[in-house]
Amino acid sequence: ARVLREEHDFRGYIHLKTIPEASEELLARAGRYADRLSINVELPTVEGLQVLAPEKDGQAIRRSMARLRIHIDDAKAGATPPPATSQPRVAPKRARAPRFAPAGQSTQMIVGADASDDRSILTTSATLYGAYQLRRVYYSAFSPIPDAARGLPLTAPPLVREHRLYQADWLMRFYGFAHDEIVGASDGMLALDIDPKLAWALAHRERFPVDLNRAPREMLLRVPGLGVTSVKRLLEARRTRTLRVDDLSRLKVPLKNVLPFISVPGAARNGLDDADLAARLRPPPVQRSLFDLPLPHG
Prior knowledge:
Number of helices: 13
C-alpha cells in the first residue's frame, strides 16, 4: 500500500484487512495508506467462534474494532487546539489529525457454518453497526471443503440466503428498519422465495395502503418496489402537484409490487386483502439453462 501511494502515486481505492491486536505502529500506517480497514468477526456469535475456531478471540476482535473506531473518529474530528492563554494573540489555525481510513471500517462473517439463524445474524450486525460505526458488514455463504473438521456442515447453505441477508442489511442501513422487525418467522430465518421488504409488508397489511400524496418518507420507504431514489423524487414532485399513477410509471417502478400497498389517484382496486396476493407477487421460479452453469475445472 505504501509503495502504491508514495512510489506509484496511486490515488484509487485501497482496502486493507488487519488482524486483532496488531501493533499500533502498523495500524497507524495501514490507516494512512488505505481508504478502508477491516477486521473479520468470522462468525455471527462468540459461541460459534469458540466452537469452530477456538484459536480466535472474539473479544480481541471487538477490542481491535474499538481501536479502529477511535482512530477514525479522531481523524474526522481533528486534533485538539492548544489551550487559551491570558496573552492576546492571533489564534493559530486548527491543526488537523492525520488522514486515517476515510472510508471507515468493515467486517465479514461466514453464514451457514454454525447454527446461527438469520435473526441472530442481523442482531450481531446491528450491534456492530451501532458500537463500532462500521460502514459495511459482508456476508459470505459457507463453502464445504474436503477433510474439514467434523463440526462443520457437509453441505453449503442456499446461496440465496446470503442474498436475502444483504437485502435485510440494506433495509437496516437505508430504509429505517430495526433489526428485530425484519425476520418474522418463528424459526428465525428469512424467507428465501421473496425479499424481506415484501415479506414484511405482507405480514403487516394493516399498515397499508399508504397515501402516496400524504405518507411520510419513513412509510413510503416501506412500500415494496419503492427505493430510496424513487421515494426522494416522489417527495420532490408532490410539493408542486398531486401524484398519480403516471408518475410511478415515469419512475419505472414495478407497479405490480407497488400498487397493492398504496392509494393514489388513477389506480384501480389495490387487492391488498386478496388471499392470493403473496402468490401473485412471488417471483416465478426460473428454469436455469445448462449453459448458465459454471464449467468444471480441467
